[in-house]
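Fill in residues.
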């Protein structure tokens, strides 16, 4: 299963950050990156359905 990590810019637009195949690894990466950058991240599946939303 394809999992895509995206971040939200200051204008509210979502940008692709990374693609992974393991949901646990994707969550850990998004959480760490969100904390480091102060940006909001979301995890979506290959079809664009929201899996999780991570705030810094």
């Amino acid at each position: 299963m394809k999992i895509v990590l995206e971040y939200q810019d200051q204008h509210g637009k979502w940008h692709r950050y990374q693609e992974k195949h393991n949901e646990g690894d994707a969550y850990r990466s998004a959480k760490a990156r969100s904390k480091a950058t102060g940006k909001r991240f979301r995890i979506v599946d290959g079809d664009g359905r929201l899996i999780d939303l991570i705030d810094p």
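Strands lie at 3-8, 14-20, 41-45, 50-54.
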